[in-house]
């Protein structure tokens, strides 16, 4: 493994700081992406709901309903992404735990270098958010595909 120009230097502190900045940025990115996709999906579902017609064949209605259901499930997944995370304050590291500490306990707590714990917690959070974002987008793609198929069916039948 290459250690760079200063092979003997310990870069743990710099690496932890960089990791925290990167993870904080990635969490913001995931929330922003989920919010944008959520808004677009909600508008799309609203459009589908207003354009639906009961005068279609059973096959068209079934495929369209399956597509709309995919969009609804995607909206639920995206809402879960942007929902604030409940953090167990006993084991958590961050603002939710700080809120439970008295001033002296907070000072004692702040003396410890807990960046590694923060990196571990944030990296798991980022991974979960992006996995759910990918699931939400896959559901949207499935829903749009099914709605397109329903449109084609309605033109053919």
From TrEMBL:
Residues 17-154 form the Pycsar effector protein domain. It is found in: Cell membrane. The chain crosses the membrane at residues 58-82, 135-156. Keywords: Antiviral defense, Cell membrane, Membrane, Nucleotide-binding, Transmembrane, Transmembrane helix. This is DUF5706 domain-containing protein. It holds the Pfam family PycTM. InterPro entries: PycTM_dom. It comes from Streptomyces justiciae.
């Amino acid at each position: 493994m290459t250690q760079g120009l200063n092979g003997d230097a310990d870069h743990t502190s710099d690496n932890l700081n960089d990791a925290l900045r990167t993870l904080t940025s990635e969490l913001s990115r995931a929330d922003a992406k989920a919010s944008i996709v959520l808004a677009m999906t909600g508008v799309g579902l609203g459009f589908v709901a207003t354009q639906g017609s009961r005068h279609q064949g059973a096959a068209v209605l079934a495929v369209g309903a399956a597509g709309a259901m995919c969009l609804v499930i995607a909206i639920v997944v995206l809402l879960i992404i942007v929902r604030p995370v409940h953090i167990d304050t006993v084991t958590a590291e961050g603002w939710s735990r700080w809120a439970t500490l008295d001033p002296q306990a907070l000072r004692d707590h702040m003396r410890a270098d807990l960046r590694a714990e923060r990196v571990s917690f944030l990296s798991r959070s980022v991974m979960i958010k992006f996995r759910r974002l990918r699931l939400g987008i896959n559901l949207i793609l499935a829903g749009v595909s099914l709605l397109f198929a329903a449109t084609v069916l309605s033109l053919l039948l």
